[in-house]
Specification:
single chain; 984 residues; alpha/beta; Kinesin; 3 domains; 12-stranded mixed β-sheet; 3-stranded antiparallel β-sheet; 34 helices; disordered N terminus; disordered C terminus; binds adenosine-5'-triphosphate; P-loop_NTPase; microtubule binding
């Protein structure tokens, strides 16, 4: 019996649903959760009356939650000749539902967990597939007593929206269409005729002229759907009395915008497609004639096109490996994103259990099974996010300049008043109606000035917006240029292959034709788009130039008005106007600073999200490559050299421990906290009095950012699960919690500051750029705060920067040297297991390398921080880390490569594990060894951090860690309590 293996992508049993999670965790999930391929479920409907009348037997059997066995009714059990060629098939899906499954069960197991993603800006597609009469419309639409997926999804969607409505502004719109005989009809406005499909500049599919109805609740949508459904083409066929002869697509679009007067707030756009496909059918069986037959042919053609796309996409390498012809039918064009692009997709295949439907069921199962191998790349749709912090810094510096100018004017007036008391006398002698006139004139001028000021601000904002548009166009253009470049490269490769006599390896498209000769349609489209985008860019540039001219003119007018002031108003009134202007400018500066702050944060998060996504993709690719190569080596009996084997074991171990996943999780936690906490303080630097601490040490900190590590970060266990009850001591009770968090790398890209020398901008710019030092504060348990680091301390740390991994590696080697071969007989020779970069010369070269790679960012060892702030503890990092840290590595399972001791988990960065190529995230890196969390800088008398019961505990993979005497520093440090020298 051929069994077809698949991986399980169904939601983990017992894991909390998004709604049950803490809000921060929700955010985390929504950012990190990526479904690598469609979730495919199967639903088997009950036998219907016709089938029973025909005497059909049940041949589709659900086995467990994921397996279905389809028996061949034509098989003769007595036929020994065919005994080994059974047509019985076993298929594994993410979920299998039998005739007893309720609508709710189907919904909860397949769709529910994706609903929250839609409101966070992810695209989601649900489609029902199967032969005619298999139950697709029943699953999607349902009946009043048992509503289907449409209503349940929408109810949950609106509920989720309601729950987050305080912070977000939503607008939901829907459209409902059918594809009948390859034409698109608007089911909400059937009189609009046939509609066209178009691809916008972002590559997403749009339907020109479709009716978009704004709705506010699920019931309203259901009413519209019922109305639309009446318009849907339905006819009785031999297999179904109410057969849908078209593909119906319900599209719900959720626009989400953060509340508040943010200029360039984030706008998320989530699209939910719910597709009830027309039933596939066999012409011979349906006995359709004439119109019905033509419909059937169209349905089958579009489903065939869909099948071809599924086949092409599920080939190894997916859409990159071979050309996927989405353009073959309207259906595939519409579902392009759902299948191979940016969408979380759920396919629910339907079959009848009847023996009379064996062929349909078999082909449906094969079809659905193929869909499981499709890979999609899911990303969140974020719009209008401005990255132009530099623009804001310009505006701020302009405003600051104006404030300075106005203030100096006021001061000048004050001086004049003091030196010429006659001014006062003049004022006193002003007659009453002249005073009234003057007041009116004053009001007029004040109104004019404020109007001019507002106008200027509007123009400045529009300029920022235009600049953003420009950037978006630029990004779009890069995307298309990349498509073209990819194609050109592919073409070159093809030529090279042809030249080297590998012509027969040329890729073929879905129809088996060679694609080497002609350009694929998306490349042609990309070329068209580039031209359009160029024209758009020119238009934007012209608009920008016009606006800049108007702004310059407005500025000139305002300054003329200011000059006229002294002639038109009395000195006291003029003072008032100037003060008012000053105040207005100050408020605007504050406002703009807040916006810049907000943008900076968003920028940071976006970049981090992007890095995570890319990194995740890269990691998956590496895993595939490694596994593929290992398989190849195994198949061909090639044995890898020992060092390579060692590295592979280390790699597998990392994978098992989920180190990288934890890293991703922590980054996401960090970003959640960044969203809440202050990131940068753009207000003027604190004075000595206001900050309450001497300025001496901080004056030279150009970037006064304060980072607070979220408590949550400290309260995560090794699996990333949050434990609200965990306390430092409680955590100590758990071996895993002793594992120090992996390196926390925060990507901080200095904003593109176009005019760094502009007066006023300089201070903000310097604060935006993490170029010199950071004030680092960790949130200690039980409210203890480690002291802020002074600039001097930071400088020292920066000077003495060493990768903690190098220190740890070097220590291990030293300990090994001191212990002089105390490894057991299975241990390889020290040279075998010693970390290659443990030698001082190697250290130096690595350090140089690291320094080169990371410049101008900083990696500093917090161990030094501890040393600095904990002078009474002889060597905090060693006395507080697991004793196993200081042990020579023990051999792993089979004994060739040493088990990485607990200490190795203190190695904060990927680069610390091996000296092979590592993934570097250039920019600012913080390394937080566990000692940081476990130290008590303020109270050196704290009891030893490693309780007795932990010392002999097991590691995360269940291996025994050898215990070491806790209070035998001489043993720990090779007979000397001296601090080991750092590698140079
Ligand atoms: N799980 C089920 N439980 C009870 N009845 C069902 C179930 N699935 C389908 N049915 C019934 O079977 C009949 C045909 O179902 P349905 O119209 O949903 O099929 P379909 O796949 O949409 O067909 P077509 O492609 O021809 O439109 C309907 O009367 C429906 O009520």
């Amino acid at each position: 019996m051929p069994s077809q293996q698949t991986t399980d992508h169904s939601p983990a049993q017992g894991s909390p649903t998004l709604r049950e999670m803490e809000p921060k965790d929700q955010q985390l999930m929504l950012r990190v959760l990526v479904l690598p391929c469609p979730q495919v479920a199967l639903r088997i409907r009950p036998l219907n009356s016709t089938e029973l009348e025909e005497g059909a037997t049940v041949i589709a059997h659900k086995v467990g939650d994921q397996v279905v066995v389809l028996m061949d009714p034509g098989e003769d059990p007595e036929d020994t000749l065919r005994a080994h060629r059974s047509r019985e098939r076993t298929f594994i899906f993410d979920t299998v539902f039998d005739q007893h499954a309720s609508q709710e069960t189907v919904y909860c197991a397949t769709i529910q967990h994706l609903v929250e993603g839609v409101i966070s800006g992810y695209n989601t597609t649900i489609f029902a597939y199967g032969p005619s009469g298999a139950g697709k419309t029943h699953t999607m639409l349902g009946v009043d007593a048992e509503p289907g997926i449409y209503l349940q999804t929408l109810t949950d969607l609106f509920q989720a929206i309601e729950e987050t409505q305080d912070n977000m502004e939503y607008s939901v719109s829907m459209s409902y269409l059918e594809i009948y005989n390859e034409v698109i009809r608007d089911l909400l406005n059937p009189s609009s005729g046939f509609l066209e499909l178009r691809e916008d500049s972002r590559g997403s599919i749009q339907i020109a002229g479709i009716t978009e109805v704004s709705t506010s609740n699920a019931q309203e949508i259901m009413q519209l759907l019922t109305k639309g459904n009446r318009q849907r083409t339905q006819e009785p066929t031999a297999t179904n009395k109410t057969s849908s002869r078209s593909h119906a697509v319900l599209q719900v679009t959720v626009h989400q915008r953060s509340r508040g007067g943010d200029l360039a707030e984030e706008v998320r756009l989530g699209r939910l497609f719910m597709v009830d496909l027309a039933g596939s059918e066999r012409a011979a069986q349906t006995q359709n004639r004439g119109k019905r037959m033509k419909e059937g042919a169209h349905i089958n053609r579009s489903l065939l096109a869909l099948g071809n796309c599924i086949n092409a996409l599920s080939e190894k390498g997916g859409s990159r490996a071979q050309y996927v012809n989405f353009r073959d039918s309207k259906l595939t064009r519409l579902l392009k994103d759902a299948l191979g692009g940016n969408s979380r997709t759920v396919m629910i295949a339907h079959i009848s259990p009847a023996s009379t439907s064996f062929e349909e069921s078999r082909t449906t199962l094969l079809y659905a099974y193929r869909a499981k191998n499709i890979k999609t790349r899911v990303k969140r749709n974020l719009l209008n996010v401005s990255y132009r912090i530099a623009q804001y810094t310009d505006v701020i510096s302009d405003l600051r300049r104006e404030i300075g100018h106005l203030k100096s004017k006021i001061e000048k007036q004050d001086k004049e008043k003091k030196s010429d008391p006659g001014v006062l006398d003049i004022q006193v002698t002003i007659p009453h109606d002249a005073e009234e006139d003057s007041r009116l004139q004053m009001n007029r001028i004040r109104a004019q000035l404020i109007g001019a000021f507002k106008e200027q601000m509007e123009m400045r904002r529009s300029l920022v917006e235009l600049e953003n548009t420009n950037i978006e166009l630029h990004i779009d253009m890069s995307r298309h240029l990349l498509t073209i470049a990819d194609w050109e490269r592919e073409k070159t490769h093809q030529h090279v292959d042809v030249d080297s006599g590998e012509r027969d390896k040329e890729p073929v498209d879905a129809d088996g034709e060679e694609v080497g000769a002609s350009e694929p349609p998306e490349v042609a489209l990309a070329r068209e788009e580039v031209n359009l985008l160029l024209a758009e860019q020119q238009k934007t540039a012209a608009l920008k130039a016009g606006l800049e001219q108007r702004l310059a003119h407005a500025k000139q007018k305002a300054s003329q008005m200011e000059k006229l002031l002294p002639r038109q108003v009395t000195s006291e009134e003029q003072r008032e106007v100037l003060q008012l202007l000053c105040r207005a400018h100050e408020l605007e500066v504050e406002n703009t600073e807040l916006q810049a702050d907000n943008l900076f944060r968003k920028n940071l998060l976006c970049q981090k999200d992007f890095v995570i996504q890319r990194y995740h993709q890269h990691r998956l690719l590496c895993e595939q490559v490694i596994q593929g190569q290992r398989q190849l080596m195994q198949d061909n009996g090639i044995s890898a050299p020992e060092p390579l084997e060692q590295q592979y074991r280390l790699y597998s171990r990392e994978l098992g421990e989920g180190t990288l996943d934890r890293l991703l999780l922590q980054l996401s936690v960090m970003s959640s906290s960044l969203q809440d906490g202050p990131i940068m303080n753009v207000s003027p630097p604190p004075t000595e009095e206001s900050s309450g601490e001497p300025l001496g040490d901080r004056r030279d900190l150009p970037w006064g950012a304060t980072f607070e590590l979220p408590q949550m970060l400290l309260e995560r266990d090794s699996d990333g699960n949050r434990s609200s009850k965990s306390t430092p001591l409680r955590r100590l009770g758990k071996q895993d919690s002793l594992l120090p968090p992996p390196a926390l790398r925060i990507l901080l890209t200095p904003p593109m500051l176009e005019k760094p020398n502009a007066p006023g901008a300089k201070s903000l710019i310097s604060r935006l750029q993490p170029t010199a030092a950071l004030e680092l504060r960790t949130q200690q348990p039980a409210g203890e705060m480690s002291p802020l680091l002074s600039a001097q301390a930071l400088k020292e740390m920066a000077l003495g920067t060493k990768s903690i991994a190098l220190i740890a590696a070097s220590r291990r080697c030293k300990v090994y040297d001191r212990e002089g071969g105390c490894l057991d007989s299975r241990d390889p020779s020290p040279a075998d297991w010693r970390w290659p970069h443990a030698s001082p010369s190697r250290d130096r070269s690595l350090d140089r390398k690291a320094g080169r790679k990371r410049s101008p960012s900083f990696t500093w060892s917090l161990q030094q921080t501890l040393e600095k702030h904990q002078p009474s503890v002889d060597h905090p990092s060693e006395s507080q880390l697991s004793p196993a840290l200081l042990q020579p590595p023990k051999p792993a399972g089979k004994g060739l490569f040493p088990a990485v001791p607990v200490a190795s988990k203190t190695k904060p960065s990927l680069s610390a594990h091996t000296d092979e190529n590592t993934l570097q995230v250039p920019e600012v890196s913080f390394t937080f060894p566990s000692a940081m969390w476990q130290s008590n800088a303020a109270a050196p008398s704290r009891p030893p951090l490693l309780p007795r019961d932990i010392r002999g505990s097991t590691d995360s993979r269940g291996r025994r860690q050898s215990p070491l005497p806790p209070n035998n520093p001489s043993k720990l440090q090779g007979g000397s309590a001296k601090r080991p020298r750092r590698p140079k």
